[in-house]
Amino acid sequence: MSEKLESSNLVLLVEDNPDDIIITKRALNMGPIRSRLCVVGDGEEAVHFIRKEGAFAGVPSPSLVLLDLKMPKVDGFEVLTEIKQSENLKKIPIIVLTTSERDVDRAYELGCNSYIVKPNSFEEFRDTLEKILQYWLRVSMTPGTEIMGV
Amino acid sequence: MGGSEEIYRKLFIESMDAIFIGDARTGIIIDCNRAACELVGREKSELVGQHQSILHPASERIDGTMTRTFLQHMTDKEGEVLEAQVVTKTGEIRDVAIKANIIEIRENLYVQGIFRDVTDWKRYEGQMRALHISADKLAVTKSVEEIYDIILDIIRSVLGFEFLGIAVREGESVHYVKALGIDIPPDFRAPIDKSIAGRAFLTGSTQLINDAKIDPDYHVVEVDASIPSMRSELAIPIVVDTKVELVINIESTKLNAFTRRDKDMLDAFADRIAASIKIIRHEEELQHYIEELMRSNRDLDEYTYVVSHDLKAPLRTIRSFSYLLLKDLGDEISEEGRDYLHRIANAAINMDALIEDLLLLSRVGRKFTNVEEVDLNQLLREIEGDLKPIIAQRKARVVVNELPVVHVPKTWMKQLLTNLIDNGIKFNKSEVPTVEVRFESRNDDYMFAVRDNGIGIPEQYFDKIFKLFERLHPREEYEGTGAGLAICKKIVDYFGGQIWFESRLGEGSTFFFTIPSSPKLGEV
User: Fold this and answer.
1) B317 vs A120: CB contact, 8 Å cut-off?
2) Residue pairs spanning A and B at CB distance below 8 A
3) What tens digit of pLDDT does each residue of A31-64 get?
4) Is the interface score ipTM higher than 0.95?
5) What global pTM score does this model have?
6) Structural fold of domain B122-285
7) Contact, B203 vs B178, CB < 8 A?
């Protein structure tokens, strides 16, 4: 697999808790799948990033969004609503990563592609993230993947 | 004998019963007394010489000439009391009981009819009937509004009136919430100290007014000049716990329209209404408390839920960073330092377990509550599978007798049995820890028993067993949060059953619980 394809594995983490940002970064780095991680701290920035607006003009489209639900200003539900109602953007897979199972129905109604409750131990969390990446970046094809060598 | 004849004449004229004497062959009235004139509201001169059918409404006439009762008396009913109706000169219909006999004097046949006015009796009879019906209706009312309608219905069926209203008190004025006969404007208020209804409010006793015009408190409803002025009034207070809740006000344009018996009947009616209002108030109060309780329970569960999740986030941070610290710098930290980091991580893990149990407790009755058909034999196999690690580790035995199929929310039934079996194995020092599950089908429920050969429960802890986070043993000796049995109790409560235990120190414990054969899931 070429380096060019690997570099397109852009994962956008939408998370306001600095601890969780570090933990997620570490966990992603330990896994076998190489990815680029961008982090935004709230829903408003997430929407700007995905739309490549303002400070985010020119950023590449993420291959995957890891979305926390509880955030200040614009929360995860609003991000889901915004993105999944947009004809151009709704194809981007959004994985909800949260602490409780109770919002699962609502998140799927708003169009999330997967809903994952964060495991409590670091090891389990690392394994879960690895599975997510394994599936969404390797097993499953996502729209816009550059098809190489055909 | 002239004197004697005068006496008889006088007895005839002054008799309290109305007496008509007629020609039996022609039906022409020959004579009548004063009471007879009063009964039909006519002068004697208007009656004598007329056909007897003049006394009765058209409905009583047969062949357009003789009346039903006259002909009956002439034939087979002589001397019997027959019920009939008479009509007065002004067209008013009155109910009468007639007794008549045929007298032959010098080959002439005369009919003597004695009429007794039973209009009022009939009315009271109807009132008693209506009162009985009202009792049935009042017994099933759910709101005071419904009671208003019953009041109007019943009174309309038993009394004649031009106005019927239900009044409530608003400070120093009387306000009609319901009215029949006259449309009362919604903003109309009568002063409480200057109206007859107001007097019923103030005194708490029924006001029977024969001539309202001469009553100092008579209050004219100045709504419309076309409204006839009222002469009789009956105002009945409905007294609930010494407070006058309502006044039923009945008015008539006639003088003396209402009698003492009407009043007595309505007083009895008022007592029944008061009793019904009291019951409704109690029910409303009870319902209010129930709703409050349910709401506060829901709030508490919601609170537990939110707090638990907020508590878990920092724990994940603690666990993750102590892990990363060990991983990154493990070699550079002293053995003591590594021990401390492990302790930090373990404390976080324990707290996680506590929070998980709290969450579980808050979810009983809120989540996964679909009642399913659960084959408990199958469920026990699942539980044994889940508990495989501890069963293997402790070389334990789980003995399951044939169990029934029950209708319960499966998730909670599984949680309940798992906790009890797990406890039986965990708190156990026997060579072969053994837990036996059996059941008994009783009249209205199933009784289950989970028996172990464990350490038993010291008697002084008997009343603490089902309390939340009560641990009887140090954590080092027996793992667990102390929430297991509290969760069991909440689940059994939710099923509508009961849970209890028997225990002997050093010999073992048996936990019993019941589930109703037809469970009604309650709020917990």
Assistant:
1) no
2) 38
3) 888 888 999 999 999 999 999 998 888 888 899 9
4) no
5) 0.54
6) Beta-Lactamase (3.30.450)
7) no
